Amino acid sequence: MASFPAELLDDTEARAVRLVALALLADAEAHRERLSQPDDPEALHDFRVAVRRLRSWLRAHGDVLGRDAPTRAHKWLGRLAAATNRGRDNEVFTGWLLAEKATLTARQRVGATWLVQRLTVEKAAADAQVLAEVSRDFERARLLLAKRLPTYRLRLHVHEGVREPTFAGAMSVLVRGKAATLRRRLESVRTVHDDESAHRARIAGKRLRYVLEPIVPHVAEGEATLARLKRLQDALGDFHDAHVWQGVVADAAEQVTREEAARLLEPPPVDAEGKPVRRHVRSARPGLVAIHGHVVARVTDTFEAIVRDWSGDALQPLMDGVEAMAEELDLRARSGVEIERKYLLRGLPLHMPNATVQHIVQGYLPGMRLVERLRRVRVGEVERFFRTVKSGTGLVRTELEEECSRAVFDTLWPLTLGRRVEKRRHVVAEGSLHWEVDEFTDRELVLAEIELPSADITAEFPAWLLSVVERDVTGDGAYVNAALAC
């Protein structure tokens, strides 16, 4: 599977989702090319998984992709995925039967051999059907998606420009939703007969896993959580498979009965002298009866394993891991967002307890759609230099900042001529928050700002500030530094 850089989490949701989708499409195409190689027994399995990953990703992000992932493409990929089910089921059952034969008697192994031969023939037919479907459905889906996914439209606000959620923020919401669905479906698996509920839970777990895979290397608890999710998926798959096998064995027993009945109606074979010859045909029925008993026992064992390992408190480590990932995604999404309130003051407060004073000179580079700021900050004899890009207005704005060298600052600074601001900033700590009082040295203006961890939090004015507050100017374009620059 393709790997992605950590920076993808900071990209916009619309772009990142498409980048991952295109990579998954390329991955499926690479595995498709392997299908023509007869000496590559894993090619079909890998192609099947790649198609399921792609289809699951497109479904999960349908709201973002919209018409760029058309219903036709989903239909073609879905039909292709369904065509692989029977071959996969027969392959898994055959592997289990071959291992289980050692526990059967010689008489019973006749039935096991007969069933393995039947499954092998059916798998070959199913695989041939898949190859036919690939040449038609996958190629149509690939061409359509390769055309649609690379481009997309953006909606722009006349005042705030592009307002796009980050991939990290969008993924935190999606991951929590998928985890809640998984928990809900698992809770509906209450008895050994709830195989359909278990299958739905397995699908939910698989979809959560496919959503997580592209970001797992870049978040805490990622690898461990994915491993737990894979174990849960396997446990639910074993339970569902055992239920499916019961039907397969029952169908096989009916076929054997019909074949044996047909032989009874056939004329008996004769030798060279025309005398009847006794048939020596060993029945597959005893083996099928024994296999059915083993399958029933497997249903019980796999259900008990689900209850023991994945219900109640046993499920919590997995859910805690998913939540830890979602929280880290939330934190990463918020790290590029500035949430602050700004107030116009009547003057500089007389007393600012334990204030740290910074001397700031900042200027703005030419540009209409992006506001890029250069800033020099001097505290005592120490100078630091920063480049910052901001977008949006009001309480919540996007802010990306990096420290730069003096050489970079000196090179770009002349471009800010005519758009500069000078001020003294007084920073006062109030608990876990910090008030910043900006005293502009090139005009009579004093502003106070406070950065908040959440837009839902309201900060109270400390006593030293309350008496000089004129009004809230958050969102007032006249008091944005870029507008004040001259």
3D architecture notes:
By secondary structure, this protein is α+β, with helices and mostly antiparallel strands. The protein folds into 2 domains: 6-270 and 281-332, CHAD domain; 338-484, Hypothetical Protein Pfu-838710-001 (Beta Barrel), CATH 2.40.320. It has 14 helices and 11 strands. It has helices at residues 13-34, 43-60, 62-65, 71-83, 85-100, 106-148, 167-187, 195-212, 222-265, 285-310, 316-335, 406-412, 463-466, 481-484, and strands spanning 156-157, 161-162, 337-345, 356-364, 371-379, 382-391, 396-404, 420-430, 433-440, 446-451, 469-472. The strands form 2 sheets. An 8-stranded antiparallel β-barrel has the order 3-7-6-5-4-8-9-10. The protein has a two-stranded antiparallel sheet with strand order 1-2. A hairpin with a 2-residue loop joins strand 5 (371-379) and strand 6 (382-391). Helix 9 packs across helix 11. The longest helix has 44 residues, at 222-265. The chain starts with 12 loop residues before the first helix and ends with a helix.
